[in-house]
Amino acid sequence: MVENTSKVKRNANDAKTNAEAERSISAKSKKIYPREVHGLFAALRTAGVASLLGFFYIVPWLQWDGRQALLFDLPERKFYIFNMVFWPQDFIYLTLLLIIAALGLFFITALAGRVWCGYACPQTVWTETFLWIERKIEGSRAQQMKLDKAPNSFRKIRIKFSKHFLWITFSIFTGVTFVGYFSPLRELAINFLTFEIAPSETFWIFFYALATYGNAGWLREQVCLYMCPYARFQSVMFDQDTMTVAFDETRGLPKGPRKKTVDKSDAGLGDCIDCTICVQVCPTGIDIRDGLQYQCIGCAACIDACDDVMDKMGYDRGLIRYTTEKILLGGHTEIMRPRMVVFGLVLLATIAGAFYSIVTRIPVGIDVIRDRNSLYRETNEGLIENVYIIKLLNMDKQDHTYTLTAEGIPDLILKMDVTDISVKSGEVVELPVRVQVDAYNLKQRSNEISFTLNTVGFEKLTATEEARFLGPAFR
């Protein structure tokens, strides 16, 4: 019965949401003035914003072994992450990172809805920062609305200019920091201040600054509503046990204004006093009392606002709260449901696999390319010979000397111009080699052999690559 009621309610909400979405797309958007709110979730959101921004702006300044600790050096094709150095050949780790991020997002969404959007999404983080600057310059929500409606004057222009000047300055600072992840930030900052930066760096600094200024300063909730695809497919990951921000209709309705001294039972009213503060604090401008909507980013601003009102009215907190659809309908939530178990196990397995792969990573690369101009040739000594090009890549942070061996066929002979191969850090060396075998030892036309690269002085740094040896088959 609970499930059938839930489906009917969800279908009605979806139809209402779709109708509202169609109207909102065609209608001209109005500026939203989010009211400042205080409370537990506001404090958590502020702490999240401060932590993420602190990480973003501080990390590029950190040094490690005489270089920038976190640097993606595209021209040199080196990616420094503290004591590790990755190369284009390590692209698989980026793929694993993206897979882990996607699985993590699915897991969090299935568990607690759009908390990522409300607390950690870059759009939310920078928008909160821009809103904070706006409040410091223009004042409270009521003062901002009054200022925008007022005719142009020297005071209004001065306030607006100050706000946008700080927005643009902060955006440029953000752009410089962003480019600092790809170009040494200390040098970049000096070159920027002295107008000596490269054209490509100039482009990306102002491109990212413009994106920050436009998205966080002007578009704001429009990015969440119309540009972000996550808002559209999130419902696929929701179920009755997903934790979302919701209004308790059973307790709150019928809603209506009243004085604190009025007995709500005698007046035939619920706990909602219809103050609309929950709407005023919403960064996307929705009314959470209308049910679950795709525009809700799960920031819980309405929870803090409603709890404050309930405290003033002497009612219990939680009229708007993090809860599940099943609880609102009188049921019990199951956290360890099948999809959560599957998402969790796959996520843990992927993280463990990526961690193991990185820990056991060998910073030595070898690639074997067989000479395709001839299948094989016979030497003056009557041996069958194949020619190969061996590509050696030193992916370590220091120079190394290597030795090369080959095996796979009895009495195999490896001939090359040098015995010890010196390769600098990050360097790729191509080495032509010849492999000779007595025809008597060839059991078939195509034979498996392997080349092993050994690092002098580092027994564990070895790499092996398989290859094929072609020749006539006499037996």
Descriptive report:
There is one protein chain. With 475 residues, the protein is of the alpha+beta class. The protein is built from 17 helices and 16 strands. The longest helix has 26 residues, at 154-179. The protein is elongated and about 110 Å long.
Descriptors for this entry?
single chain; 475 residues; Immunoglobulin-like
Short description:
The protein is of the alpha+beta class and 475 residues long. Helix 5 crosses helix 9.
Fraction in beta strands? 15-25%
Quick one: how many beta strands? 16
Distance between the termini: 77 Å
Low-confidence stretches: none
Alpha-carbon Rg, integer: 32 Å
| Biggest beta sheet attributes | 5 strands, antiparallel
Layout of helices and strands, plus pairs?
Layout: H1 2-26, H2 40-58, E1 63-64, E2 67-68, E3 70-73, E4 78-81, E5 84-86, H3 91-112, H4 115-119, H5 122-138, H6 141-149, H7 154-179, H8 185-193, H9 199-219, H10 221-227, H11 230-233, E6 244-247, H12 249-252, H13 264-267, H14 277-280, H15 301-313, E7 320-323, H16 325-328, H17 338-359, E8 364-370, E9 377-378, E10 383-394, E11 400-407, E12 413-416, E13 421-423, E14 428-438, E15 446-455, E16 458-470
Antiparallel strand pairs: 1-2, 3-4, 4-5, 6-7, 8-10, 9-10, 10-14, 11-13, 11-15, 12-14, 15-16
Helix pairs in contact: 2-5, 3-17, 5-7, 5-9, 7-9
